[in-house]
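User: These chains co-purify. Model them together.
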Amino acid sequence: MFMNRIVKIILIDILKNKIVLAYTIILAALSWSSFALEDNAAKGLLTILNVILFTVPLVSVLFSTIYIYNSSEFIELLLSQPIKRKKIWTSLFLGLSISMILAFFVGAGIPLLLNAPDSVGIMMLIVGCLISVIFVALAFLSAILTRDKAKGIGVAIMTWLYFALLFDGIVLFLLFQLSDYPIENAMVGLTALSPIDLARIQILLHLDISAMMGYTGAIFKDFFGTTSGLVASFLLLCLWAAVPFYISLRRFKNKDL
Amino acid sequence: MIEIKNCYKKFGKLQVLQDINLSFRKGECVALIGPNGCGKTTLIKSILGMVLPDKGAIDCNGKSIFNDYLYRKNIGYMPQIGRYPDNMTIGQIIDMMKAIRQSDEPLDEDLMTAFGLEKMFDKQMRTLSGGTTQKVSAVLAFLFNPEILILDEPTAGLDPLASEILKEKIITEKQKGKLILITSHLLSELDDLITEIIFMQEGKVHFHKKVSDLKSETKEEKISKAIAQILKNNVHE
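Assistant: Joint model of the two components:
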Protein backbone atom coordinates (compact mmCIF):
# COMPACT_ATOMS: atom_id res chain seq x y z
CA MET A 1 0.00 0.00 0.00
CA PHE A 2 2.71 2.44 1.03
CA MET A 3 4.71 1.50 -2.00
CA ASN A 4 2.01 2.45 -4.45
CA ARG A 5 1.66 5.84 -2.87
CA ILE A 6 5.39 6.53 -2.95
CA VAL A 7 5.70 5.30 -6.53
CA LYS A 8 2.87 7.64 -7.47
CA ILE A 9 4.52 10.63 -5.80
CA ILE A 10 7.82 9.90 -7.57
CA LEU A 11 6.15 9.25 -10.91
CA ILE A 12 4.25 12.54 -10.84
CA ASP A 13 7.43 14.35 -9.90
CA ILE A 14 9.41 12.79 -12.78
CA LEU A 15 6.72 13.28 -15.39
CA LYS A 16 6.59 16.98 -14.51
CA ASN A 17 10.29 17.15 -15.36
CA LYS A 18 10.95 18.94 -18.65
CA ILE A 19 13.90 16.71 -19.52
CA VAL A 20 11.62 13.68 -19.79
CA LEU A 21 9.29 15.65 -22.04
CA ALA A 22 12.20 16.75 -24.24
CA TYR A 23 13.45 13.14 -24.40
CA THR A 24 10.02 11.95 -25.54
CA ILE A 25 9.81 14.63 -28.22
CA ILE A 26 13.31 13.89 -29.50
CA LEU A 27 12.58 10.15 -29.69
CA ALA A 28 9.34 10.89 -31.53
CA ALA A 29 11.04 13.25 -33.98
CA LEU A 30 13.81 10.73 -34.70
CA SER A 31 11.43 7.82 -35.13
CA TRP A 32 8.93 9.62 -37.34
CA SER A 33 11.63 11.15 -39.52
CA SER A 34 13.49 7.87 -40.04
CA PHE A 35 10.32 6.20 -41.24
CA ALA A 36 9.55 9.19 -43.45
CA LEU A 37 13.04 9.40 -44.95
CA GLU A 38 13.55 5.74 -45.83
CA ASP A 39 11.49 4.25 -48.62
CA ASN A 40 10.84 0.94 -46.90
CA ALA A 41 9.98 0.08 -43.33
CA ALA A 42 12.92 -2.30 -42.87
CA LYS A 43 15.44 0.47 -43.56
CA GLY A 44 13.50 2.75 -41.26
CA LEU A 45 13.65 0.11 -38.55
CA LEU A 46 17.40 -0.19 -38.94
CA THR A 47 17.85 3.55 -38.51
CA ILE A 48 15.62 3.58 -35.46
CA LEU A 49 17.48 0.61 -34.03
CA ASN A 50 20.72 2.55 -34.04
CA VAL A 51 19.03 5.59 -32.57
CA ILE A 52 17.44 3.52 -29.83
CA LEU A 53 20.62 1.70 -28.93
CA PHE A 54 22.50 4.98 -28.72
CA THR A 55 20.15 7.48 -27.07
CA VAL A 56 17.93 5.34 -24.86
CA PRO A 57 20.78 3.98 -22.71
CA LEU A 58 22.41 7.40 -22.44
CA VAL A 59 19.30 9.24 -21.32
CA SER A 60 18.15 6.42 -19.02
CA VAL A 61 21.43 6.08 -17.19
CA LEU A 62 22.24 9.78 -16.95
CA PHE A 63 18.80 11.05 -16.01
CA SER A 64 18.32 8.31 -13.42
CA THR A 65 21.69 8.85 -11.78
CA ILE A 66 21.12 12.58 -11.45
CA TYR A 67 17.60 12.01 -10.24
CA ILE A 68 18.73 9.58 -7.53
CA TYR A 69 21.34 12.02 -6.25
CA ASN A 70 18.81 14.84 -6.25
CA SER A 71 16.39 12.66 -4.30
CA SER A 72 18.74 12.33 -1.36
CA GLU A 73 16.65 14.80 0.68
CA PHE A 74 13.50 12.93 -0.20
CA ILE A 75 15.09 9.62 0.78
CA GLU A 76 16.24 11.08 4.10
CA LEU A 77 12.78 12.41 4.78
CA LEU A 78 11.18 9.04 4.10
CA LEU A 79 13.75 7.18 6.17
CA SER A 80 12.62 8.82 9.41
CA GLN A 81 9.09 7.62 8.65
CA PRO A 82 7.75 4.12 9.26
CA ILE A 83 8.74 2.84 5.83
CA LYS A 84 11.06 -0.03 4.98
CA ARG A 85 14.31 0.90 3.33
CA LYS A 86 13.65 -1.71 0.67
CA LYS A 87 10.36 -0.04 -0.15
CA ILE A 88 11.93 3.38 -0.59
CA TRP A 89 14.61 2.11 -2.97
CA THR A 90 12.27 -0.14 -4.95
CA SER A 91 9.70 2.63 -5.28
CA LEU A 92 12.36 4.94 -6.64
CA PHE A 93 13.39 2.24 -9.12
CA LEU A 94 9.82 1.58 -10.21
CA GLY A 95 9.08 5.28 -10.56
CA LEU A 96 12.13 5.86 -12.76
CA SER A 97 11.65 2.69 -14.81
CA ILE A 98 7.99 3.37 -15.47
CA SER A 99 8.63 6.94 -16.55
CA MET A 100 11.51 5.94 -18.85
CA ILE A 101 9.37 3.20 -20.42
CA LEU A 102 6.50 5.63 -20.80
CA ALA A 103 8.70 8.18 -22.51
CA PHE A 104 10.09 5.50 -24.84
CA PHE A 105 6.66 4.13 -25.58
CA VAL A 106 5.13 7.48 -26.44
CA GLY A 107 8.20 8.70 -28.33
CA ALA A 108 9.29 5.63 -30.28
CA GLY A 109 6.65 3.01 -29.59
CA ILE A 110 3.74 4.71 -31.32
CA PRO A 111 5.54 5.35 -34.64
CA LEU A 112 6.93 1.79 -34.48
CA LEU A 113 3.52 0.24 -34.04
CA LEU A 114 2.02 2.38 -36.80
CA ASN A 115 4.77 1.93 -39.39
CA ALA A 116 6.00 -1.58 -38.65
CA PRO A 117 3.16 -3.45 -37.00
CA ASP A 118 4.87 -6.84 -37.33
CA SER A 119 6.94 -9.09 -35.08
CA VAL A 120 10.10 -7.01 -35.57
CA GLY A 121 8.36 -3.79 -34.60
CA ILE A 122 6.94 -5.32 -31.44
CA MET A 123 10.25 -6.93 -30.62
CA MET A 124 11.98 -3.57 -30.98
CA LEU A 125 9.44 -2.11 -28.60
CA ILE A 126 10.07 -4.78 -25.97
CA VAL A 127 13.84 -4.53 -26.38
CA GLY A 128 13.69 -0.73 -26.05
CA CYS A 129 11.70 -1.02 -22.82
CA LEU A 130 14.14 -3.61 -21.46
CA ILE A 131 17.14 -1.46 -22.38
CA SER A 132 15.52 1.48 -20.56
CA VAL A 133 15.06 -0.56 -17.39
CA ILE A 134 18.56 -2.07 -17.62
CA PHE A 135 20.20 1.33 -17.75
CA VAL A 136 18.01 2.63 -14.93
CA ALA A 137 19.26 -0.33 -12.88
CA LEU A 138 22.88 0.45 -13.82
CA ALA A 139 22.24 4.05 -12.73
CA PHE A 140 21.14 2.78 -9.32
CA LEU A 141 24.33 0.80 -9.06
CA SER A 142 26.57 3.72 -9.94
CA ALA A 143 24.66 6.07 -7.63
CA ILE A 144 25.03 3.76 -4.63
CA LEU A 145 28.72 3.06 -5.24
CA THR A 146 29.80 6.58 -4.45
CA ARG A 147 28.50 9.32 -2.20
CA ASP A 148 29.91 12.04 -4.42
CA LYS A 149 27.50 13.25 -7.07
CA ALA A 150 30.12 14.21 -9.68
CA LYS A 151 31.86 10.84 -9.32
CA GLY A 152 28.57 8.98 -9.54
CA ILE A 153 27.57 10.77 -12.74
CA GLY A 154 31.07 10.08 -14.08
CA VAL A 155 30.66 6.38 -13.40
CA ALA A 156 27.27 6.45 -15.13
CA ILE A 157 28.72 8.09 -18.25
CA MET A 158 31.60 5.61 -18.30
CA THR A 159 29.12 2.74 -18.07
CA TRP A 160 27.27 4.06 -21.08
CA LEU A 161 30.48 4.76 -23.01
CA TYR A 162 31.70 1.26 -22.31
CA PHE A 163 28.56 -0.52 -23.44
CA ALA A 164 27.72 1.77 -26.36
CA LEU A 165 31.19 2.20 -27.87
CA LEU A 166 34.12 0.52 -26.15
CA PHE A 167 32.64 -2.95 -25.92
CA ASP A 168 32.09 -3.07 -29.71
CA GLY A 169 35.65 -1.91 -30.22
CA ILE A 170 36.99 -4.67 -28.00
CA VAL A 171 34.89 -7.30 -29.76
CA LEU A 172 36.02 -6.08 -33.15
CA PHE A 173 39.65 -6.08 -32.02
CA LEU A 174 39.36 -9.66 -30.76
CA LEU A 175 37.62 -10.67 -33.95
CA PHE A 176 40.48 -9.43 -36.12
CA GLN A 177 43.25 -10.67 -33.84
CA LEU A 178 41.81 -14.13 -33.54
CA SER A 179 40.36 -14.44 -37.02
CA ASP A 180 42.47 -17.54 -37.69
CA TYR A 181 40.77 -19.46 -34.92
CA PRO A 182 37.23 -20.83 -34.76
CA ILE A 183 35.90 -18.24 -32.34
CA GLU A 184 32.34 -18.00 -33.65
CA ASN A 185 30.82 -19.84 -30.70
CA ALA A 186 32.83 -17.78 -28.25
CA MET A 187 31.47 -14.65 -29.94
CA VAL A 188 27.95 -15.71 -29.08
CA GLY A 189 28.95 -15.99 -25.44
CA LEU A 190 30.74 -12.65 -25.58
CA THR A 191 27.61 -10.79 -26.64
CA ALA A 192 25.92 -11.81 -23.41
CA LEU A 193 28.35 -9.46 -21.67
CA SER A 194 26.72 -6.38 -23.14
CA PRO A 195 22.99 -5.72 -23.04
CA ILE A 196 23.22 -3.36 -26.00
CA ASP A 197 24.84 -5.97 -28.24
CA LEU A 198 22.41 -8.58 -27.07
CA ALA A 199 19.56 -6.31 -28.08
CA ARG A 200 21.16 -5.36 -31.40
CA ILE A 201 21.81 -8.92 -32.53
CA GLN A 202 18.38 -9.99 -31.44
CA ILE A 203 16.77 -7.43 -33.72
CA LEU A 204 19.23 -7.63 -36.63
CA LEU A 205 18.54 -11.35 -36.95
CA HIS A 206 14.89 -10.64 -37.41
CA LEU A 207 15.58 -8.22 -40.23
CA ASP A 208 16.41 -9.53 -43.70
CA ILE A 209 19.89 -8.02 -43.67
CA SER A 210 21.13 -10.78 -41.37
CA ALA A 211 21.81 -12.73 -44.54
CA MET A 212 24.69 -10.33 -45.19
CA MET A 213 26.45 -11.01 -41.92
CA GLY A 214 28.43 -13.95 -43.23
CA TYR A 215 29.51 -17.04 -41.32
CA THR A 216 29.38 -15.48 -37.84
CA GLY A 217 25.91 -14.28 -38.70
CA ALA A 218 24.92 -17.82 -39.49
CA ILE A 219 26.23 -19.05 -36.15
CA PHE A 220 24.34 -16.25 -34.43
CA LYS A 221 21.23 -17.22 -36.30
CA ASP A 222 21.71 -20.80 -35.23
CA PHE A 223 21.68 -19.74 -31.61
CA PHE A 224 19.56 -16.60 -31.31
CA GLY A 225 17.21 -17.45 -34.15
CA THR A 226 15.73 -20.44 -32.35
CA THR A 227 13.00 -20.08 -29.77
CA SER A 228 15.23 -21.26 -26.97
CA GLY A 229 17.88 -18.77 -28.07
CA LEU A 230 15.28 -16.03 -28.08
CA VAL A 231 14.12 -16.95 -24.60
CA ALA A 232 17.73 -17.18 -23.39
CA SER A 233 18.60 -13.74 -24.68
CA PHE A 234 15.49 -12.19 -23.14
CA LEU A 235 16.31 -13.85 -19.84
CA LEU A 236 19.82 -12.47 -20.08
CA LEU A 237 18.43 -8.98 -20.66
CA CYS A 238 16.19 -9.38 -17.61
CA LEU A 239 19.22 -10.45 -15.59
CA TRP A 240 21.02 -7.33 -16.74
CA ALA A 241 18.25 -5.32 -15.10
CA ALA A 242 17.76 -7.47 -12.01
CA VAL A 243 21.36 -8.06 -10.93
CA PRO A 244 22.61 -4.43 -10.79
CA PHE A 245 19.45 -3.34 -9.02
CA TYR A 246 19.67 -6.19 -6.53
CA ILE A 247 23.28 -5.32 -5.69
CA SER A 248 22.34 -1.67 -5.20
CA LEU A 249 19.41 -2.66 -2.99
CA ARG A 250 21.67 -4.78 -0.79
CA ARG A 251 24.04 -1.86 -0.39
CA PHE A 252 21.27 0.64 0.25
CA LYS A 253 19.90 -1.49 3.07
CA ASN A 254 23.21 -1.22 4.91
CA LYS A 255 24.03 2.36 4.08
CA ASP A 256 24.49 5.07 6.71
CA LEU A 257 22.61 8.21 5.85
CA MET B 1 11.01 2.94 26.11
CA ILE B 2 14.36 3.14 24.38
CA GLU B 3 17.20 0.90 25.46
CA ILE B 4 20.69 1.22 24.00
CA LYS B 5 23.23 -1.48 24.88
CA ASN B 6 26.95 -1.51 24.08
CA CYS B 7 26.65 0.45 20.88
CA TYR B 8 29.72 0.99 18.71
CA LYS B 9 30.01 2.85 15.43
CA LYS B 10 33.02 3.68 13.32
CA PHE B 11 33.09 6.01 10.32
CA GLY B 12 36.26 5.05 8.50
CA LYS B 13 38.96 5.29 11.17
CA LEU B 14 36.97 7.58 13.42
CA GLN B 15 35.28 5.91 16.38
CA VAL B 16 32.07 7.94 16.65
CA LEU B 17 30.21 5.86 19.21
CA GLN B 18 32.02 3.86 21.83
CA ASP B 19 30.24 1.50 24.17
CA ILE B 20 27.07 3.55 24.59
CA ASN B 21 24.68 2.25 27.24
CA LEU B 22 21.58 4.34 27.82
CA SER B 23 17.94 3.91 28.63
CA PHE B 24 15.10 6.38 28.34
CA ARG B 25 11.66 6.07 29.89
CA LYS B 26 8.27 7.67 29.41
CA GLY B 27 7.77 11.20 30.66
CA GLU B 28 11.46 12.01 30.61
CA CYS B 29 12.89 14.99 28.83
CA VAL B 30 16.50 14.20 28.13
CA ALA B 31 19.11 16.65 26.98
CA LEU B 32 22.02 15.28 24.99
CA ILE B 33 24.91 17.70 25.17
CA GLY B 34 28.56 17.72 24.30
CA PRO B 35 31.10 19.40 22.03
CA ASN B 36 30.77 19.35 18.24
CA GLY B 37 31.42 15.98 16.68
CA CYS B 38 31.02 14.03 19.91
CA GLY B 39 28.49 11.65 18.34
CA LYS B 40 25.18 13.18 19.39
CA THR B 41 23.64 13.22 15.93
CA THR B 42 25.06 9.78 15.13
CA LEU B 43 23.42 8.42 18.29
CA ILE B 44 20.09 9.98 17.31
CA LYS B 45 20.37 8.68 13.77
CA SER B 46 21.14 5.22 15.13
CA ILE B 47 17.91 5.29 17.13
CA LEU B 48 16.09 6.27 13.93
CA GLY B 49 17.72 3.49 11.94
CA MET B 50 19.43 5.90 9.57
CA VAL B 51 22.86 4.89 10.81
CA LEU B 52 23.45 1.22 11.51
CA PRO B 53 25.73 0.57 14.50
CA ASP B 54 28.63 -1.85 14.05
CA LYS B 55 27.96 -3.59 17.35
CA GLY B 56 25.39 -3.48 20.10
CA ALA B 57 21.63 -3.44 20.43
CA ILE B 58 18.95 -0.79 20.37
CA ASP B 59 15.45 -1.66 21.60
CA CYS B 60 12.35 0.42 21.31
CA ASN B 61 9.39 -0.63 23.46
CA GLY B 62 11.10 -3.94 24.16
CA LYS B 63 11.72 -4.85 20.51
CA SER B 64 14.96 -4.60 18.61
CA ILE B 65 14.85 -1.83 16.02
CA PHE B 66 17.13 -3.66 13.60
CA ASN B 67 15.18 -4.99 10.63
CA ASP B 68 12.08 -3.27 11.96
CA TYR B 69 10.51 -0.10 10.65
CA LEU B 70 7.08 0.12 12.25
CA TYR B 71 8.56 1.42 15.52
CA ARG B 72 9.19 4.69 13.70
CA LYS B 73 5.42 5.28 13.83
CA ASN B 74 5.97 6.29 17.44
CA ILE B 75 8.79 8.67 16.70
CA GLY B 76 8.70 12.27 15.57
CA TYR B 77 12.06 13.46 14.36
CA MET B 78 13.20 17.02 13.83
CA PRO B 79 16.57 17.04 12.07
CA GLN B 80 19.31 19.55 12.72
CA ILE B 81 19.25 20.70 9.12
CA GLY B 82 16.00 19.72 7.47
CA ARG B 83 16.51 18.80 3.84
CA TYR B 84 13.42 18.65 1.69
CA PRO B 85 12.76 18.20 -2.03
CA ASP B 86 13.38 21.63 -3.54
CA ASN B 87 10.48 21.86 -5.90
CA MET B 88 7.74 20.87 -3.48
CA THR B 89 5.72 23.43 -1.57
CA ILE B 90 5.17 23.38 2.19
CA GLY B 91 1.58 22.24 1.63
CA GLN B 92 2.67 19.41 -0.67
CA ILE B 93 5.27 18.17 1.83
CA ILE B 94 2.73 18.11 4.64
CA ASP B 95 0.10 16.44 2.47
CA MET B 96 2.65 13.87 1.31
CA MET B 97 3.60 13.00 4.88
CA LYS B 98 -0.06 12.62 5.78
CA ALA B 99 -0.58 10.32 2.77
CA ILE B 100 2.48 8.23 3.70
CA ARG B 101 1.58 7.87 7.36
CA GLN B 102 -2.16 7.40 6.76
CA SER B 103 -2.73 7.86 10.45
CA ASP B 104 -6.30 7.54 11.72
CA GLU B 105 -5.51 9.41 14.88
CA PRO B 106 -6.26 13.12 15.07
CA LEU B 107 -3.38 15.28 13.86
CA ASP B 108 -1.64 17.77 16.08
CA GLU B 109 -1.63 20.98 14.10
CA ASP B 110 -1.02 23.35 17.02
CA LEU B 111 2.44 24.31 15.87
CA MET B 112 1.30 24.90 12.33
CA THR B 113 -1.20 27.48 13.54
CA ALA B 114 1.18 28.96 16.08
CA PHE B 115 3.89 29.45 13.44
CA GLY B 116 1.36 30.73 10.90
CA LEU B 117 2.54 28.22 8.29
CA GLU B 118 -0.86 27.95 6.60
CA LYS B 119 -0.32 31.32 5.01
CA MET B 120 2.84 30.02 3.30
CA PHE B 121 1.48 26.68 2.07
CA ASP B 122 2.18 27.41 -1.59
CA LYS B 123 5.78 28.53 -1.05
CA GLN B 124 8.42 26.25 -2.52
CA MET B 125 10.92 24.70 -0.14
CA ARG B 126 13.93 26.16 -1.95
CA THR B 127 12.67 29.72 -1.38
CA LEU B 128 12.41 29.27 2.38
CA SER B 129 14.82 30.73 4.91
CA GLY B 130 16.63 28.41 7.30
CA GLY B 131 14.30 29.37 10.13
CA THR B 132 11.15 28.65 8.16
CA THR B 133 12.55 25.27 7.10
CA GLN B 134 13.13 24.55 10.80
CA LYS B 135 9.50 25.44 11.46
CA VAL B 136 8.38 22.93 8.83
CA SER B 137 10.59 20.27 10.44
CA ALA B 138 9.10 21.03 13.85
CA VAL B 139 5.54 20.86 12.54
CA LEU B 140 6.24 17.50 10.88
CA ALA B 141 7.82 16.08 14.04
CA PHE B 142 4.79 16.89 16.19
CA LEU B 143 2.11 16.33 13.54
CA PHE B 144 1.33 12.68 14.19
CA ASN B 145 1.25 12.81 17.99
CA PRO B 146 4.23 10.46 18.44
CA GLU B 147 5.09 8.97 21.82
CA ILE B 148 8.76 9.76 21.33
CA LEU B 149 10.09 13.09 20.11
CA ILE B 150 13.64 13.39 18.92
CA LEU B 151 14.72 16.97 18.39
CA ASP B 152 18.19 17.70 17.03
CA GLU B 153 19.10 21.31 17.84
CA PRO B 154 15.46 22.37 17.71
CA THR B 155 15.86 26.05 18.45
CA ALA B 156 18.94 26.73 16.32
CA GLY B 157 17.96 29.15 13.58
CA LEU B 158 14.56 30.00 15.02
CA ASP B 159 13.72 33.55 15.99
CA PRO B 160 13.11 34.18 19.73
CA LEU B 161 9.34 34.21 19.30
CA ALA B 162 9.25 30.91 17.38
CA SER B 163 11.69 29.24 19.73
CA GLU B 164 9.52 30.29 22.67
CA ILE B 165 6.47 28.74 20.95
CA LEU B 166 8.43 25.54 20.38
CA LYS B 167 9.58 25.41 24.00
CA GLU B 168 6.02 25.84 25.22
CA LYS B 169 4.99 22.98 22.93
CA ILE B 170 7.76 20.74 24.22
CA ILE B 171 6.66 21.38 27.81
CA THR B 172 3.02 20.56 27.00
CA GLU B 173 4.06 17.31 25.34
CA LYS B 174 6.31 16.40 28.25
CA GLN B 175 3.38 16.81 30.62
CA LYS B 176 1.39 14.39 28.47
CA GLY B 177 3.97 11.76 29.42
CA LYS B 178 5.96 11.58 26.19
CA LEU B 179 9.63 10.87 25.95
CA ILE B 180 11.55 13.81 24.58
CA LEU B 181 15.16 13.72 23.45
CA ILE B 182 16.85 17.03 22.74
CA THR B 183 20.35 17.88 21.65
CA SER B 184 21.45 21.43 22.12
CA HIS B 185 24.40 23.69 22.63
CA LEU B 186 22.38 26.40 24.25
CA LEU B 187 22.37 25.23 27.85
CA SER B 188 20.49 28.31 29.03
CA GLU B 189 17.56 27.30 26.87
CA LEU B 190 17.21 23.94 28.55
CA ASP B 191 16.73 25.13 32.13
CA ASP B 192 12.97 24.85 32.41
CA LEU B 193 12.63 21.95 29.97
CA ILE B 194 14.67 18.96 30.90
CA THR B 195 14.64 16.32 33.61
CA GLU B 196 17.81 14.42 32.71
CA ILE B 197 21.09 15.32 31.16
CA ILE B 198 23.60 13.27 29.22
CA PHE B 199 27.03 14.62 28.49
CA MET B 200 28.89 13.00 25.63
CA GLN B 201 32.52 13.37 24.72
CA GLU B 202 34.50 11.67 21.95
CA GLY B 203 31.80 9.09 21.37
CA LYS B 204 31.45 8.11 25.02
CA VAL B 205 28.84 8.96 27.61
CA HIS B 206 30.66 11.13 30.13
CA PHE B 207 27.79 11.21 32.60
CA HIS B 208 24.06 10.61 32.73
CA LYS B 209 22.32 12.35 35.61
CA LYS B 210 18.98 13.66 36.76
CA VAL B 211 18.91 17.44 36.62
CA SER B 212 17.82 17.66 40.25
CA ASP B 213 20.79 15.51 41.33
CA LEU B 214 23.12 17.55 39.23
CA LYS B 215 21.93 20.78 40.78
CA SER B 216 22.12 19.52 44.33
CA GLU B 217 25.57 17.98 43.83
CA THR B 218 27.02 21.16 42.44
CA LYS B 219 24.83 23.54 44.45
CA GLU B 220 24.17 25.57 41.34
CA GLU B 221 20.81 26.89 40.15
CA LYS B 222 21.55 26.98 36.44
CA ILE B 223 22.36 23.92 34.35
CA SER B 224 25.04 25.74 32.43
CA LYS B 225 26.93 26.62 35.60
CA ALA B 226 26.51 23.13 37.04
CA ILE B 227 27.97 21.57 33.91
CA ALA B 228 30.81 24.06 33.83
CA GLN B 229 31.66 23.16 37.42
CA ILE B 230 31.69 19.43 36.72
CA LEU B 231 33.93 19.90 33.72
CA LYS B 232 36.30 22.10 35.75
CA ASN B 233 36.51 19.48 38.49
CA ASN B 234 37.30 16.83 35.93
CA VAL B 235 40.15 18.87 34.56
CA HIS B 236 41.62 19.29 38.02
CA GLU B 237 41.40 15.60 38.73
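Residues 183 and 197 of chain B are 10 Å apart (CA to CA).
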